Amino acid sequence: MIKEADVVIVGSGAAGLYCALNIPDHYKIIVITKKQPEDSDSFLAQGGISVLRDNDDYDAYFEDTLKAGRYKNNKDSVEILIRSSRSVIEDLVRLGVNFDQDGSDFSYTREGAHSVNRILHHKDVTGKEITEKLLEQVRHKSNITIVPFVTMIDILEKNHTCTGVVLKDQANTISTISARAVVWATGGIGGLFEHSTNMNHITGDAIAIAVKHNVKLIDMNYVQIHPTTLFSKGEGRSFLISEAVRGEGAILLNKDGQRFVDELLPRDVVSAAIYEQMKKDGTDYVYLSMQHMTGEKIRERFPNIYEKCLEEGYHLETDLLPVTPAQHYFMGGVQINEDGKTSMKNLFAVGETSCNGVHGANRLASNSLLEALVFSKRAAFMIGEGLKSGALENGAEIIDYTQYKNTEALEKEYHLLVWNEISKGSVEYAGLCKHEG
Ligand code: SIN
To answer: For ligand 1, what atom is nearest to the CA of residue 243?
Structure first.
């Protein structure tokens, strides 16, 4: 294992990769990831990425983001998000990302709580398209090394300055990398929930380590439930049925085939209405109908969803699809400023694991990939400046490895730490959580 780097980035989702790409090329960067580099929630994102279509849409986009966020958002962060959106999209296109076109213009779709169509997409696999293109770029950079199948189990700290990370590999061998800056891009907390659209290994590791080292957290009770995931009796990750499906006209029906909610309300409102309906009907799901769309249109616009549903025995053009809510996103997390700085020196956080208040209490659909990119680029700039000025200096540290030897107990302890933080406020739908204590 490499022992030293200028920057260690923990996580290989869109935020981690884009951060790596935006740090000047002459710095040595190591990206570590728990599984394969493709195993991130960014990769799974279906719906799309929101963008300011033209300046006339600014006020409406701002208001939609705040209204969905129950007006708990940090307005400065929202302004940065929206004002930076077009340059980030231009950058992605330059890096080879393809968005669906409508003639010579982009094709814009809509999702819940957006007042207009402003979401760019690549069929129903937008996250895969973006993440694959970012990964391709990262793999071409000689200054960036991706190390798969290692887990961050701690950070190195000296006088409340982060000086590196402690890692565990698949053989449970412990090692360290010392670094002048560490970036947490570890994603959300869905792996702690019984029903989540997130990958199982995304368990909020950075949050637990933050608690241990007194790194400030914020808005820890803001957990988002997505209204529509494919109902299944089996175990494992809940398969998302993108809100873009409802954006394209699909409707929700109760057991008697009647509509019971406006499908394009904010997702927390739609989730609550579904729970209410399931309770009334005594069912574990409601139905989603795409019967207004032709099979050809569904296959062309939502090939991934179509295939998965077919595997499960549902023909979307004719069958009603049983759907149920599941944990999807975490709005709270490691407190950062608008440049990704945490409360600990030389420690940065980006993407879902971080929180600068941009999403408020409930994220607007398709603002997550955008947020990951906009704010990781700003963090990268800050890190580059710090490295250049010599402000991000560190010192190697000797630690006692024996404290990490019982990896199973450590994992349990970390899950508990995260869950304790989440449960400090009142969490909606906490009954979905695996942890019973
Ligand atoms: C979806 O496609 O419904 C999810 C998009 C998002 O989480 O913003």
So the answer is: 3
Output the six-digit token pair for 128.
Answer: 């895969």
267 is catalytic: yes
Centre of ligand 1 from the C-alpha of residue 182, in Å: 29
Q: What is the pLDDT of residues 306-361, one digit of tens each?
A: 999 999 999 999 999 999 999 999 999 999 999 999 999 999 999 999 999 999 99
Any atom of ligand 1 within 6 Å of the Cβ of 365? yes
Distances in Å between the Cα of 300 and the Cα atoms of 124, 305, 312 are 9, 11, 19
> Of ligand 1's atoms, which has the minimum distance to the CA of residue 329?
7
* C-alpha closest to that of 137 among 93, 177, 85: 93
Q: Over range 85-96, report the average pLDDT.
A: 98
CA–CA distance, 154 with 35 (Å, rounded to integer): 17
| Average of per-residue pLDDT across 4-24 | 98
What pLDDT is attached to residue 57? Answer: 98
47 lines ligand 1 (CB under 6 A): yes
**Ligand 1, pocket-test mutation among 40, 43, 46, most atoms within 8 A of CB:** 46
Instruction: Give the residue-averaged pLDDT of 290-294.
Output: 93
Is 197 touching ligand 1 by the criterion CB < 6 Å? no
pLDDT at 430 over 60: no
244 in contact with ligand 1, CB cutoff 6 A: yes
Asked whether the predicted pLDDT for residue 211 surpasses 90, the reply is: yes
Q: Report how far ligand 1's centroid is from the alpha carbon of 354 (Å).
A: 18
Between the two ends of the chain, the Cα-to-Cα distance in Å is 37
Spatial strand order in the sheet of 217-218: 217-218, 333-335, 354-355
Residue 232 has pLDDT above 50, yes or no: yes
Q: 368-389 and 126-140 helices cross at what angle (nearest 10)?
A: 20
For residue 219, the model assigns a pLDDT of 94
- pLDDT for res 429: 52
Can you tell me the distance from the alpha carbon of 147 to that of 179, in angstroms, rounded to the nearest whole number? Answer: 15
Q: What are phi and psi of 139, to 5 degrees?
A: -65, -20
Domains of the chain: 4-223+328-432 (3.50.50.60), 228-326 (3.90.700.10)
DSSP per-residue letters across 187-204: --SGGGBSSBSS-TT---
- Strands 101-102 and 105-106, bridge-based pairing: antiparallel
Q: What is the DSSP letter of 359?
A: T
